[in-house]
Amino acid sequence: MKKIFLLAIVAITLSHTSCGPAAEDRATMHSNAKRIGDSIANLIKTSMDEAAAPGPVAQPVNTAAATSTAATQTNTPK
């Protein structure tokens, strides 16, 4: 009885795994994969274009002056 039950389970499992998706399902899966791939490629391209675009010119910060000003403000006696 155990052998028949095991054989039935194996047969059912093999019959389910051997059946692939229908042609319509495969076409839908491929179109979805292409759509998602194109979306990711557009996102990457947009990010790269934004990174390559010249931005506003930042003013250089004089760190020595900022440090000495901060040091004199914190060391003043009360």
List descriptors.
78 residues, elongated
Please tell me about this protein's structure.
The radius of gyration is 33 Å and the shape is elongated. It has 78 residues and is mostly helical. The protein has helices spanning 2-18, 23-52, 63-74.
Report the strand count: 0
Order of helices and strands: HHH
Return the structural class: mainly alpha
The share of residues in extended strands comes to under 5%
Kindly state the percentage of residues in helix. Answer: over 70%
Oligomer: single chain
Catalogue the unreliable spans. Answer: none
Shape: elongated
Brief synopsis:
The chain is built from three helices and no strands.
Strand and helix layout:
Blueprint: H1 2-18, H2 23-52, H3 63-74
